[in-house]
Specification:
By secondary structure, this protein is α/β, with parallel strands linked by helices. The chain has helices spanning about 15-25, 70-75, 190-195, 235-245, 260-270, 290-295, 340-360, 410-415, and strands at about 15, 35, 45, 50, 60, 65-70, 85-90, 105-110, 120-125, 155, 165, 180, 200-205, 210-215, 220, 230, 250-255, 275-280, 305-315, 315, 320-325, 330-335, 370-375, 380, 385-395, 400, 420-425, 430, 435-440.
């Protein structure tokens, strides 16, 4: 990473957003693959292509409860002139000893049971008298209560073409087909497919373990009373939730007071369960910016290990940023500013791509779009800084509306936003009706979504 392990702050250089992100992604590497049980692999990224070893379904089977028949035997059948067939027995799912259906015969069959030899179609039980000799029935009686239903005669009231109500062998996937490609994020449907083709384990990149902590002696956990000069800690909750939404296993650490040694000790204790550490607060130029104080002088031989750079970025919000590695395994650390909006915007731009890189995903960025600015007045932006404003994006109209002001403390506005309006650093004003770039945040983010 550029400038890391120097233990100094480059006060003279102003980094662009793209330069800082490039430095982060150049350093972060995908986690090593491991073999996991299916349920443990949920949310993980598949490492290898998976080929189907056995066709699904593995045999022709019934999609209905009814009777397996030969099509010639029910040709022209109606309620007035039903086809009368001899029932030769039951075919239940998972039962052995398959029956054969000959001319003038039928086998009572249950959903999922294999189609017996000789049968060409299944007529639903509702199209028959159920063997009771009357009109159409609505279902079958339990075999244990009426075993005679597996014998005798059944009257079929409708015709059936070949293959009717039959799930053909291989109609889902065939042996040798590609079931899932490498890079797929495994969720319930993918795990269902893996289980259906007999895979008990799968090789994946594990979900990254992200430790999130906020700093500040003024921070109080939600639910506790506030003292004078105190505020509730929202950053650690927001960043932990955002990390989980991005696909990580995220652990929130209670707020750390403004003491450098305490912070360094806390981070050191957390490294055992961290693939990535994210801090918020303490990275600016104040006398109590504890993250900067604790980590800017870190050396490889120190107990914390690694090195962290603190930078000025040409962006608003989120101007002060820190990035480096710590500990014997050189665990990546991203130090974000403490204002809630600055912290969240920084997460979206830098931390989320880092998490998805650790997961082994090829596309690590949020989707973007062009939209028409809908606003009551001109948007202004400081020269030389890329500005990220909260907005509401209307997919149907292709418009985006600013939400709240530019202040980096406006959490209520952030809660209403589903996009970031991007004003390039060379632009100082945007008029209503002009096109702008927007970063689409979405209302919810499944691990595999962009």
């Amino acid at each position: 990473m550029s400038g890391t392990n120097t233990g100094t702050t480059d006060q003279d250089r102003v980094w662009t957003v793209a330069e800082h992100l490039e430095d982060v992604l150049r350093t972060v590497r995908p986690l090593e693959p491991i073999e996991l049980q299916l349920l443990d692999a949920q949310g993980c990224v598949l490492v290898d292509d998976v080929v189907v070893p056995v066709s699904l379904p593995p045999f022709d089977n019934s999609s209905m409860d009814g009777y397996a028949v030969r099509t010639a035997d029910v040709a022209g059948a109606s309620e007035e002139y039903p086809a009368v067939l001899t029932v030769v027995g039951d075919v239940a799912a998972g039962r052995g000893g398959r029956l054969a259906v000959g001319p003038g015969q039928a086998a009572r069959i249950m959903t999922g049971a294999p189609l017996p030899p000789g049968a060409e179609a299944v007529v639903p039980v509702e199209w028959t008298d159920g063997g009771l000799g009357g009109g159409p029935v609505t279902g079958m009686r339990a075999h244990s209560a009426a075993p005679e239903g597996a014998s005798g005669q059944v009257r079929v009231h409708r015709t059936a073409s070949a293959g009717a109500h039959v799930r053909a062998q291989g109609s889902d996937v065939r042996a040798g087909d590609l079931a899932l490609t490498a890079g797929t994020v495994l969720d319930a449907p993918q795990i269902a497919l893996l289980a259906a083709i007999g895979r008990g384990t799968v090789r994946v990149r594990p979900r990254p373990r992200v430790v999130v902590l906020s700093t500040g002696s003024e921070l109080v956990p939600p639910g506790e009373p506030l003292g004078e000069g105190q505020i509730f800690d929202s950053n650690s909750y927001a960043l932990t939730a955002a990390a989980r939404a991005a696909g990580a296993l995220a652990y929130r650490v209670g707020a750390v007071a403004d003491d450098a040694e305490t912070l360094r000790a806390t981070i050191e204790d957390q490294l055992i369960r961290a693939d990535l550490v994210v801090t918020s607060g303490g990275v600016s130029v104040g006398a109590y910016d504890v993250v900067k104080e604790a980590l800017s002088s870190v050396r490889d031989e120190d107990v914390a290990g690694g090195g962290v750079d603190f930078r000025v970025l040409a962006m608003q919000p989120g101007k002060p940023q820190g990035f480096g590695s710590i500990g014997p395994d050189h665990t990546p650390l991203l130090a974000l500013p403490g204002n809630p909006v600055s912290s969240y915007v920084s997460f979206e731009l830098f931390v989320r791509p880092a998490i998805r890189t650790l997961m082994g995903l090829s596309d690590v960025h949020r989707p973007t779009a062009r939209a028409v600015l809908r606003a009551d007045k001109t948007l202004t932006s400081p020269a030389g800084r890329t500005q990220y404003l909260r907005g509401r994006h209307d997919v149907d109209t292709g418009e985006v509306t600013p939400v709240g002001g530019a202040g980096s403390h406006l959490v209520a506005a952030l809660a209403q936003a589903d996009a970031l309006i991007v004003v390039p650093r060379e632009v100082t004003s945007v008029e209503p009706g002009e096109d702008v770039d927007v970063v689409l945040l979405g209302r919810s983010a499944a691990p595999g979504s962009a």
